[in-house]
Amino acid sequence: MTLPFFKYQGTGNDFILIDNRHNQISLQSEQVAYLCNRHFGIGADGLMLLQLEPGLDFKMVYFNSDGNESSMCGNGGRCITAFAKQLGIVNESAKFMAIDGIHESIIHENGEVSLKMKDVKSIEQNTNHFFLDTGSPHYVTLVDDVENFDVYQNGHAIRNNARFAEQGTNVNFMEKKDDGIFVRTYERGVENETLSCGTGVTAAALVAALMGISSHKNHCCIQTKGGKLEVRFEKVLENTFYNIWLKGAANIVFEGKVQLPHDLL
Q1: CB 224 within 8 Å of CB 11
Q2: Closest CA to 51 of 29, 26, 34
Q3: How does pLDDT run across 12-32, given as a tens digit for each residue?
Q4: How many CA atoms are closer than 13 Å to the CA of 232, on its beta-carbon side?
Q5: Please, are residues 224 and 198 in contact by the beta-carbon 8 Å criterion?
Q6: 193: three-class secondary structure by DSSP
Q7: Where in the sequence of the chain do the CATH 3.10.310.10 domains occur?
Q8: Which residue of 4, 158, 238, 261 has the lowest C-beta tally within 10 Å?
Q9: Ramachandran angles phi, psi of 36, nearest 5°
């Protein structure tokens, strides 16, 4: 089985993109995991199928690198928008279906992509962390010296604690900076740190606004290991945010064809 594919990345969060508008491709979890494997496959944090959706430009079907279909991926949504433009499906904007509902996106002249995220109507506040859903579940906590923080060990422990072990959660560690926040994320499904996480920086930006450490009232600049992102929002009530937009780069890396091994067919 030979698959044509495209590789994209959004601030270092990388994805395999496959055009499945003819609905001819059906991948098993083992096949997705193989394709995302960085030693034996193409290598990626996740894989997406672009499919047709009545009344919309397309549908985004997202899989984590462990092979399982997952919740919303913000950087993935921005990358699949850029992919749709490359395929000639959209031009300057898109409206598409994802697992958490309909999303809008805008392609800017400089190639950056803005993605409208789901509204956040509740944020759980605890002694040393916050928990919220921005399309995917996120644990957010403030730390000192995040650049030298052990994200893997601490993130793995939180993701697998008694509360989160069954369903999992993404774990974000953030530090206040003069021009915004620096965020590092341990992602469930990847089970490791990624260079950037779109739903994660969105969650961190809203928490920063809630804590009063955001650099601006209605938007936040975020530094990740993979690059810079920006989140804009409207805060209506203490724990309620609407009109949330995630903006940043979304670039093609390469395209090619891959042959799945016989034992996975």
Answers
A1: yes
A2: 26
A3: 999 999 999 999 999 999 999
A4: 7
A5: no
A6: strand
A7: 2-112+251-264, 124-246
A8: 238
A9: -80, -15
The low-confidence residues of the chain, meaning pLDDT below 70, are none
- State the pLDDT at residue 216: 83
* Angle at 140 (CA atoms; ends 229, 157), nearest 5 degrees: 120
CA distances from 120 to 5, 167, 186, 239, 246 (A): 34, 20, 21, 8, 14
Map residue 191 onto helix, strand or coil. Answer: coil
The Cβ of residue 124 has, within 10 Å, a number of other Cβ atoms equal to: 11
Q: What separation in angstroms does the CA of 6 have from each of 23, 57, 199, 208, 216?
A: 17, 19, 22, 35, 36
Alpha-carbon separation of residue 251 from 51, 102, 127, 185, 248 (angstroms): 20, 23, 39, 21, 10
- Reported CATH class of domain 2-112+251-264: alpha beta
Map tokens 């995630």 to a residue: 246
| Residue 36 annotated as catalytic | no
Q: Which fold has domain 124-246?
A: Diaminopimelate Epimerase; Chain A, domain 1 (3.10.310)
- What percent of the chain is predicted at pLDDT more than 90? 93
From 36, 79, 197, 220, the catalytic residue: 197
User: Each residue of 66-110: pLDDT tens digit?
Assistant: 999 999 999 999 999 999 999 999 999 999 999 999 999 999 999
Please report the DSSP string for 130-144 in residue order.
EEEESSSEEEEEE-S
The one catalytic residue among 36, 73, 79, 220: 73
Spatial contact of 41 and 27, defined as CB atoms under 8 Å apart: no
Amino acid 234: pLDDT: 95
